[in-house]
């Protein structure tokens, strides 16, 4: 479960960071990535736990 | 660094550093293969083998006290961990899980046994290898049971609508195949490492306070040592808990790998 939460933020935050580096957007993409990853991870935990 | 360890009374090596975890080689020189830690691992392995051989040498239908002790330990691994976590199929993993539990428990307890007071698990190498074994095992038994297709489908495709998949599949991949072994190893390592550092801080800190100039600080060393003793009992709890957690998580990964559908 912890793995999902860390994993979600790490993967999509990482993607966001790379997009930031690429497009020089100064941290906005990282923030969007972190939120997206967190949301995905929570969604996954809820799905996995209730299934 | 060696001189500091040899003469702690003259000049207390405070605060403790990571260097305290790298004991000098017993053979002398730069050969690092034989240290206190390698000997502790051998002792733990030998102790477990001898203990179980001794207690099961002459098994009785009505068990003697020592046979009952050993059977209770195995029973814990077999029924409480293997059977409850994995189900009936889990019985064939009971020997591995029990061995893992006993080994981690014993090596963790070395962190608080007087005279040893350091655990081999406070080196990342030990938990890392054990996590690697569990990692390879759950992937292997999953592919063996369900085939590679179903196994990876179960572990990568969550039960979710299709438009969520691009977000969820990378998370599943990272959490199941990267963060699982990493957290498994780090959890045990960090607990044992931090526990040892805390005990060092309070024990050595007591000496530092005692040696201090101020008359008010000297009695505080007693408080520091009292806390060190209290924390040793806390470490006993942590030792059991972490051994249990490591084993249960391994069982849970195997159980997930053996499941047919989510």
UniProtKB/TrEMBL annotation, chain B:
It is a multi-pass membrane protein. Gene3D superfamilies: ATP synthase, F0 complex, subunit A (1.20.120.220). The keyword Oxidoreductase does not apply. PROSITE patterns: ATPASE_A (PS00449). The chain crosses the membrane at residues 37-56, 93-116, 122-141, 162-182, 188-210, 222-245. Keywords: ATP synthesis, Cell membrane, CF(0), Hydrogen ion transport, Ion transport, Membrane, Transmembrane, Transmembrane helix, Transport. It is found in: Cell membrane; Membrane. Pfam families: ATP-synt_A (PF00119). Key component of the proton channel; it plays a direct role in the translocation of protons across the membrane. NCBIfam families: ATP_synt_6_or_A. Belongs to the ATPase A chain family. This is ATP synthase subunit a.
């Amino acid at each position: 479960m912890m793995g999902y939460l860390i994993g979600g933020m790490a993967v999509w935050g990482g993607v966001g960071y790379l997009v930031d580096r690429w497009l020089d957007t100064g941290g906005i993409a990282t923030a969007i990535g972190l939120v997206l990853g967190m949301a995905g991870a929570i969604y996954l935990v809820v799905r996995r736990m209730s299934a | 660094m060696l001189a500091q360890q040899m003469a702690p009374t003259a000049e207390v090596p405070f605060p403790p550093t990571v260097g305290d975890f790298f004991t000098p080689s017993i053979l002398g020189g730069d050969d690092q293969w034989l240290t206190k830690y390698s000997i502790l691992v051998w002792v733990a392995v030998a102790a477990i083998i001898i203990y179980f051989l001794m207690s099961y040498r002459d098994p009785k239908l009505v068990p003697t006290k020592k046979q009952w002790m050993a059977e209770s330990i195995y029973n814990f691994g077999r029924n409480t961990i293997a059977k409850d976590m994995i189900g009936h199929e889990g019985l064939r993993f009971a020997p591995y899980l029990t061995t893992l539990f006993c080994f981690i428990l014993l090596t963790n307890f070395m962190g608080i046994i007087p005279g040893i007071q350091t655990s081999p698990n406070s080196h990342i190498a030990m938990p890392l290898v054990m996590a690697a074994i569990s990692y390879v095992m759950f992937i292997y038994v999953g592919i063996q049971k369900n085939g590679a297709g179903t196994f990876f489908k179960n572990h990568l495709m969550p039960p979710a609508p299709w438009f969520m998949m691009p977000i969820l599949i990378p998370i599943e991949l990272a959490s199941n195949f990267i963060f699982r072994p990493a957290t498994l190893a780090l959890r045990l390592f960090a607990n044992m490492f931090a526990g040892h550092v805390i005990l060092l801080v309070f024990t050595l800190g007591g000496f530092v306070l005692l040696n201090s100039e101020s008359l008010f600080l000297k009695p505080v060393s007693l408080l520091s040592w009292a806390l060190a003793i209290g924390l040793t009992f806390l470490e006993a709890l942590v030792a059991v808990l972490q051994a249990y957690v490591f084993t249960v998580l391994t069982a849970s990964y195997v159980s997930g790998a053996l499941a047919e559908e989510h």
